[in-house]
Design brief:
It comes from Hyalella azteca (Amphipod). This protein is α+β, with helices and mostly antiparallel strands. Among the domains are: 2-118, Mannose-Binding Protein A, subunit A (Mannose-Binding Protein A, Chain A, Roll); 285-484, Acetylcholine Binding Protein, Chain: A (Distorted Sandwich), CATH 2.70.170.10; 487-574 and 644-669, Methane Monooxygenase Hydroxylase, Chain G, domain 1 (Up-down Bundle). The chain is built from 11 helices and 29 strands. The strands form 8 sheets. It has an 8-stranded antiparallel barrel with strand order 8-9-10-11-12-13-14-15. A 5-stranded mixed β-sheet has the order 23-25-20-19-27, with no helix packed on it. Helix 7 runs antiparallel to helix 11 (636-669). 31% of the residues are buried. Bound molecules: 2-acetamido-2-deoxy-beta-D-glucopyranose (6 copies). One 2-acetamido-2-deoxy-beta-D-glucopyranose binds at residues 26-27, 29-30.
């Protein structure tokens, strides 16, 4: 019996804090027994007909249907006084009066009644937070009353009772009157020492000076399995800090920082290595990288850079730290912002070759989770708040943040548009040399779906390697193979230029003396080609060296030029005169060797002119004519030039094309042999 007027809710939590519930007699025998205990306190608790104690039942949910508050069971035994219950919906709680009659009563805060609890006696209690068991006990048993309030007796050297002069609870060392602590009665409605309370010691205690307040927990919760709410109720330990309040006072979700940072922890120092050799050398702290490339947003070969979104995770252990309230699901163990920013060491990784030379940062977009690997330490009653504590060498700390970065890359355009480029992203430990912090791949280390649809490039391979270089800082490099997609260039550059060149070659099929048309067409081809070249050049990356595509254009233009030159040469050897003049000239000038050729074409003309105008020379002519008739083609030279130039130009063009296309194809198969 707690001889103190309390609100209904407070009474309920008081009884549950002692491991029991409000009393509710279930039959007449029990009623007699309860009344016998309660009746002793009639003078403190009520007048002759006022309410004496609260009963463990309510009809709050449905009027007239009474249920137990502690377990929800329906109540079957009643001992209502005459005319009761009469409060309807306004009176949802019940009290027992002196003489044993029951009445319904309002649960409102202003109604205060004494409390009779049904407890499992003897009530054993544990006092948590006693870090030096020299003066006080950590175990107590409820042992009668003192100053009209319960008295708790320690096992060996202390007692806990209500000090009626100081009007507070007192933890007293039995050997020395001056060694004691007083409970700081705050604004809490429950002024019992049960649950978590602050105590002021008359002497230095647990590292605090005399007069400082220390949190102590008086609890009957199961050690190592249950958590004591601030009001003394018990909830399973796994439900603490699970983002759902189970305690009535929500205290299980208070103070949910995960990291326990020891005194002297310096967040600028990397974690010490787990093993130190006898000669003083030590292993570095390993930081494992696990990177997911979410997407390549852009590859700007002209700007020599590419844009990538990375999900960067790094994982490490810090044996200096301890962690509490860790859940099986890692994603629930998130460090709070002030913990990651102010308490713990977080490795810093710089992105070499990124634009702006960015570092990894810890900000609002960063998530740090903790994963437990081993089992917790044994429960420590010296801690006021129960918790499962995990050692730092048994837990992984994991930082996750998404970065959107531009990396620089030197694209090689010699093979453009058939180029395959290798760009790198280097992740380097910052601020700590490789003797202290070493970066490692976590498994494969780098993950990418190869699913990006980039307009010009295809990511065909990514390798991820730890660098074994003699550099001072440890680093890991991802090498990305980017293949330029050339279908577009084939369609817009190579096919049209080949067609125009073909048109240029086609002028050889015109009559050889058709100089004018040949010139018009081939000059037009040349003009189109050069315009095309200058237009395409503006869209291509600027380089100091020649690119394959430049060579292609250059050669195409040269071919057009050669064709035009050939036509001019042919024209040069094309002699214009009237045909008979030509014929006689030819006959005089050229000794006849084989006249069977072309005789039919020219002989009639020759004979006619010879016979009509040059009779005296007839005999000579005839003499000549007796030899086999001979005629030499006056156009043989231009025709020959035309024929051979055509063959030469076409065959060399074919040879050039074969060599030209062999280069990129060869480069595709042996992409590492870049000789530019
Ligand atoms: C009354 O209830 C208690 C506990 O529920 C039981 O032990 C006792 O036998 C009951 N007495 C009668 C008379 O039913
Ligand atoms: C309880 O106390 C009241 C008044 O103090 C008395 O009238 C009544 O008989 C007592 N009942 C029992 C069962 O002791
Ligand atoms: C590493 O990344 C992969 C891909 O995202 C993921 O499946 C894996 O769980 C990650 N490992 C760790 C320890 O984060
Ligand atoms: C990288 O650095 C630049 C300039 O220093 C800054 O503007 C940018 O926000 C940084 N990017 C990231 C992802 O931190
Ligand atoms: C962690 O350290 C403790 C002592 O500091 C040691 O007993 C335990 O075996 C270590 N655990 C692991 C996984 O190394
Ligand atoms: C109203 C009523 O029935 N009261 C009874 C409750 O129980 C006590 C003790 O058994 C009786 O004395 C009352 O008469």
């Amino acid at each position: 019996m707690f001889k103190e007027l309390l609100q209904f809710k407070v009474a309920v939590s008081l009884c549950s804090a002692f491991g029991g519930a409000l009393a509710l007699p279930g039959n007449r025998t029990e009623l007699e027994r309860a009344l016998k205990i309660a009746n002793k306190s009639v003078s403190e608790c009520s007048g002759p007909s006022g309410p004496l104690t609260w009963l463990d039942m309510t009809d709050e949910w449905r009027d007239g249907r009474w249920e137990r508050v502690s377990n929800g069971q329906q109540v079957t035994f009643f001992n209502w006084s005459k005319g009761q219950p009469n409060g309807g919906q306004n009176e949802n709680c019940a009290v027992m009066r002196p003489h044993g009659g029951w009445a319904d009563n309002s649960c409102a805060k202003s109604f205060k009644v004494c409390t009779l609890c049904k407890l499992n006696v003897p009530v054993f209690l544990r006092l948590r937070g006693i870090c030096e068991a020299v003066f006080y006990d950590d175990r107590f048993v409820m042992d009668g009353d003192k100053n009209k309030k319960p008295h708790f007796r320690g096992y060996y050297r202390s007692e806990l009772y209500y000090d009626s002069e100081l009007r507070t609870w007192r933890l007293q060392n039995t050997g020395d009157e001056n060694t004691h602590a007083l409970m700081v009665v705050g604004s809490k409605s429950l002024s019992y020492p049960i649950g978590r309370n602050f105590w002021k010691f008359t002497h230095g205690f647990c590292g605090s000076a005399a007069g400082e307040v220390v949190s102590l927990t008086l609890t009957q919760c199961k050690n190592g399995e249950e958590f004591t709410c601030n009001d003394g109720a018990c909830v399973p330990l796994v439900q603490v800090c699970d983002r759902r309040a189970q305690c009535r006072d929500q205290s299980d979700e208070l103070d949910c920082t995960l990291a326990i940072v020891p005194h002297g922890y310096q967040r600028t120092l990397p974690p010490p290595s787990s093993s130190e050799a006898s000669d003083g050398s030590f292993e570095p702290t390993y930081v494992y990288l696990n990177i997911t490339i979410a997407s390549f947003y852009a590859i700007q070969s002209v700007g020599n850079r590419f844009n990538v979104e990375l999900k960067l995770r790094f994982i490490w252990m810090d044996p200096r730290l301890k962690f509490k309230y860790l859940k099986d699901d890692r994603e629930l163990n998130i460090l709070q912002p002030h913990e990651m920013n102010e308490y713990i060491w977080v490795p810093e990784i710089s992105f070499i070759d990124s634009e702006g030379n960015n570092n990894s940062v810890v900000d609002s977009k960063t998530k740090i989770t903790v994963e437990k690997l081993g089992s917790p330490e044994e429960d420590d009653v010296q801690r006021s708040r129960e918790a499962r504590i995990y050692r730092g060498n048994d837990t992984c700390i994991r930082v996750v943040r998404i970065y959107n970065l531009w990396f620089r890359c030197n694209f090689n355009f010699f093979y453009f548009p058939f180029n395959t480029d290798y760009c790198t992203m280097t992740f380097q430990a910052n601020k700590n040399t490789k003797n202290y912090v070493k970066l490692k791949k976590y498994g494969r280390g780098l993950w990418y779906e190869y699913a990006d649809q980039l307009p010009k490039y295809k990511i065909s391979d990514i390798s991820f390697e730890e660098n074994e270089n003699p550099e001072l800082y440890s680093s890991v490099t991802a090498t990305i193979k980017m293949e330029h997609l050339f279908a577009n260039e084939i369609m817009t550059i190579f096919v049209p230029t080949t067609l125009i060149n073909t048109i240029g070659f086609a002028t050889f099929f015109y009559k050889w003396f058709d100089f004018q048309n040949r010139m018009v067409i081939s000059l037009t081809s040349l003009l189109v080609l050069s315009t095309f070249f200058s237009q395409v050049s503006t869209t291509l990356p600027e380089t100091s060296y020649l690119k394959l595509v430049d060579i292609w254009f250059l050669v195409s233009i040269i071919y057009c030029f050669v064709i035009i030159t050939t036509h001019v040469i042919i024209e040069y050897f094309h002699e214009y005169s009237n045909p008979s003049e030509m014929a006689s000239k030819k006959l005089e000038e050229y000794p006849v060797e084989n006249a069977s050729v072309l005789r039919s074409a020219a002989s009639t003309d020759v004979e006619r002119s010879a016979g009509a105008e040059n009779a005296p020379r007839n005999s000579a002519t005839e003499a000549k004519c007796h030899q086999p008739a001979v005629f030499r083609d006056p156009y043989a030279t231009p025709k020959k030039i035309d024929k051979w130039a055509f063959r030469l130009v076409i065959s060399s063009y074919v040879v050039f094309s074969i060599i030209f296309w062999a280069v990129p194809i060869w480069q595709k198969f042996k992409p590492d042999s870049i000789f530019m």
